Amino acid sequence: MTTPKIACSGPIGEVAIDILQPYAEIVIAENSSEAALIGILEGAVGLILRGDGVGNARVIAAGSDLKVIGRSGVGYDNVDIAAASSRKIPVIITPGANAQAVAEAAIAFMLGLCKKMVYWDTQLKAGNWGSRYGQETGDLDGGTLGIIGLGRIGCKLAELIRPFNMTVIAHDPYASRQAAAALDVELVGLDELFKRSDFVSIHALLNKDTRGLVNRARIGLMKPGSFLINLARGGLIESLDVLYDALIGGQLAGVGLDVFDPEPPDVTHPIFKLQNCLTSPHATGMTRRSMYRIFQMMAEDMAAVLSGQKPKHVANPEIYS
After folding, report:
1. Which of 233, 238, 300, 313 is catalytic?
2. Looking at the predicted structure, is the pLDDT value of residue 250 above 90?
3. Residue 203 is among the residues annotated as catalytic for this protein
4. Could you tell me which residues are beta bridge partners of residue 252?
5. How confident is the model at residue 2 (pLDDT cuts 50, 70, 90)?
6. Which of 214, 54, 246, 215 is nearest to 147 (CA)?
7. Global pTM?
8. CA distance linking residue 194 with residue 260, whole number of Å
9. How far is 144 from 200, CA to CA, in rounded Å?
10. What pLDDT score was predicted for residue 189?
11. Residues 202-223: pLDDT tens digits?
């Protein structure tokens, strides 16, 4: 009899290995591509998709023995939920596990951009002490922060930003007005958010309704010299071209990007040559503490499924109806 296994699109944390090893052998794919995953799915009772791991219908179909799919994160746009649900396969997610880390990163991007940290670092190391007289930096103090998506990360950001003396507004059609009021956040329409904000931080889920949500027209509503941060999904922004044009034209003073569409991005795009475009490789939520929580939550719920129990956090709870 073939030993059951759990196929993984990338390395997983020790805490997940400790929890899942009693149930199956852990097998890591050579890379996160469709072909690599399909190649290790025979006999797999579980599939773990990290980052850009492909969880389309072909991959799911190749796992004829699959009982559970785990996503090491909150977003699940790389998983064909319909294909999983048609076979009653729960898709495990880890809501809130990295909320603190991503919210901290959003503030780091805001500070890094408005304080021109990359510019000052470059000038000092080039021996240009006199550069301190030729540039002016900005402030969070007294500004308006617009948060797109007031879920766990958006709420955590609203909480952490309080000491900076900012007005916080948000757009989220599903947010509770009572919850927003408790955070001293005003819920507004999307266009109003772009018009009023000095900083816009994106924390929405990507789906057919939100793809391209941040487009050229909406960026054109922003105050000249404002800032845009995206730590959610690259597809929420129309294109890098619209960001580049806004940076060159002065509509945006700075852009912070941790996510792209596709990933990895084509770094020959001219936006990557701009000093006021601060980037990271979809890594800001991958702190030591957050990754431990993510792998622990995911593995515990996967173990529950493999034990015949109901998991706590699933993207497709309707399969249990």
Report:
1. 233
2. yes
3. no
4. 226
5. low
6. 214
7. 0.89
8. 21
9. 9
10. 98
11. 999 999 999 999 999 999 999 9
